[in-house]
Amino acid sequence: MPTTTQDSSIAALLRDDILRGQYRCGERLPSERDLALRFGVHRSTVREAFKRLEQLGVARIAPGGARVAPLEEASLDIVEHLLALDDAPDPEIVDQVLEALSGFRAMAARLGTERADAAQRARLLEIVDAMSRSGLGNEEYAELVLELSDRFVEASGNMVLRLMGHALRPQRAHTRLGYGLFSDPPGRAEVDAALEQLARAIEAADGTRASEAIYGLSRLFRQSLRERSSAAEARATRPNRTALAGGRA
Amino acid sequence: MPTTTQDSSIAALLRDDILRGQYRCGERLPSERDLALRFGVHRSTVREAFKRLEQLGVARIAPGGARVAPLEEASLDIVEHLLALDDAPDPEIVDQVLEALSGFRAMAARLGTERADAAQRARLLEIVDAMSRSGLGNEEYAELVLELSDRFVEASGNMVLRLMGHALRPQRAHTRLGYGLFSDPPGRAEVDAALEQLARAIEAADGTRASEAIYGLSRLFRQSLRERSSAAEARATRPNRTALAGGRA
DNA sequence: CGTGCCACCATGGTCCGACCAGATCACCCC
DNA sequence: GGGGTGATCTGGTCGGACCATGGTGGCACG
Predict the structure, then answer these.
(1) B28 bridge partner residues
(2) Cβ contacts (< 8 Å) between A167 and chain B: which residues?
């Protein structure tokens, strides 16, 4: 039972404030004493929260005041928090994460395909086969995609990939909406073709082809997601702006 | 002048101990009071160090004792510390990092190539052209590769890629040894071919081809590095084992 | 009036000592 | 021997304190 401590709650609050863009980069955060007063905790508790923020790379603590760090210095770990910020994260962030995820999975597919042993290869083919079947729901597809990705990473035997996958692991529904095209007639043909290509690539241990197949699949997903979310956005409130806004000049 | 604080020094010490594999996963770390005594600091200072470790994902703090976290839960940020651990990091780690770096750069090349504007494209071609010239030293090549990578990331406009690049940024010489093949006759032809392919891909905004070219280049580098380092290792002491050892079963 | 210097104050870094609740573990009783 | 139980240990939090440093305003001097 992960009983959250006060320092981690405070760290999460401040982190989200920063990620939401409520403090400009370089701006001073409230002093430790102020925050201790505001949150009704002891200063040392606030300090511990600050240390977390510094380790996360979103703040820089120095005598004279803690300041918001430039976003480029942040840890990849902020991604999951960016996605979890609100019910409707900035679609641009979601898209950038999905894009990175596509590339990451393509990378994993390449290495995994080249290095998988017989058992791993069989398991990979099983999953691809399951994805080819029709009649699965969004959640089921999402599960399959996740497992496929994990198996590729596992087969690659690369710990760095594993860590990257951990940071990018989609935990929110926002990133899983696109899988509907699996059952939609329009995209179905393309998906099937890509899956077929992927299966052959796995059998032939052809990393490059597997990589392309995965990337193609991911692109289809992202496209589908963009269409769906832009439609959804049209009848919703404005998305929240975050510190990432404008990142893609 | 980043005057390092005691808590960060202690955090670094403990982190390196953990990364070096001196504590088994799940094993209890010494208590805060013990460490405070050992380091001659107050317990609250040790606590701040612990918070950093927890945020880094290498330790899990809970009543009853802080324990070493499973490696999969760690942040990507540990990679740079793994490489900085000793003068001669485990070659397997270096190889895994380079492998991930290859994939990352291929990803950045794909997205960057597809989305670069005219000025960015011109700059990319400039760098590729500079890499084609002979007579450059290892350091110069490393610089060019780094800048090329950065420009691709910049052109991609993807903040997640930027964060990944930051975590994987090679800061140590170990990851730069392979560039010698740029001037070596045996590899030179292959390198030139790949560079030529890359240039054409950039001109044509062909992400897939650019990605393949970069991946091919990176593979040549890694190969070269492996040969060099295995030769060097033969006449050196055993490499240090770290927590990553055995990651590639 | 402008400028430069200095004292003052706020801030982070560290320390001291204390209390609480939950986890651990050894011991004892059954 | 097994299970309960209390001493003990651990982290979580608190209150207060001191120091060095950096920021800032005011005061004196030009």
Answers:
(1) B67
(2) 75-76
